[in-house]
Give the backbone structure.
Amino acid sequence: MSDPHVLCLGEVLFDCLADQPGREFVEVDSWTPYPGGAPANVACALVKLGTSAGFIGCVGMDAPGQQLVALLRQTHVNVEGIQEHPQAPTRQVYVTRTLGGDRTFAGFGEYDTSAFADTQLQVDQLPTDLFARADFLILGTLELAYPQSAAAVQQAMELAHQYQMQILIDVNWRPVFWGDPEIARQVILHRIPTADYLKLAEEEALWLWDTTDPQQVAKQLPQTKGVLITAGEKGCTYYLQGVSGHHPGFVVDVVDTTGAGDAFVAGFVHQLRSVDLSTLDSESVEKMIAYANAVGALTTTKAGAIAAQPLADEVETFLRTHIHP
């Protein structure tokens, strides 16, 4: 298995999507499981775009865990960093959908949020050798909600700094994973300043800093090279290496928005690996953000997160044939 250029650490799970859009949780008749989990989504999307990636996380020794690991292997994601827990189950999340495709995380069925294998990621089993050979580390914040996995996140960030990797944090805050929103806010704010790049949704920017201006966020994070604030169908505002702007996104027929933000992150990092940051100008930054938005938009045109991700040639075709409004 080839060495990954990008390591994605966190959760891999099944998103159980409601088969009846527009209904509340208790009104849903049936659910369809789709492989997901933000860091796993990013790893798969990167590989499909042509950037090698590895996933680091913990699954249960159960059928869902085996299915997810098999999918990652089939997608050619490096799985050397996957741990298995003998008792804890692989996480499944129930997701309701609006008629317009927007989703709401509705809970974990019969289990408490802390009962799943991803919370048990062990520090001493992190694949140090992969960190030594990779260029990027991509993290979410869900694993910061649990002591064991939070310690693994901290160690991963220390390894990334030791081996001069660049770090991107996608805030990806989900209240359903946390007991106390204010504790979540403080824990997340403590980790963010050591990241090179930060991606967050508008509501997350308001929650953390009371602004949706990426330049204002960047001023509070002197070590950060770029801040990307996404707003779904309204596109993305950004501040990258001193260049700021807004890309309005693309108009597509939305089926399911699950994983769109993760695909955006993959599109951004895929572009980032091929540019010289010292020579970036407003036009090249705009192209990078347009590419990331295109990857995200295409992912919304099919159901599921990983299954809907586009290949590189599909993105290029889309960009040639779609002009943003």
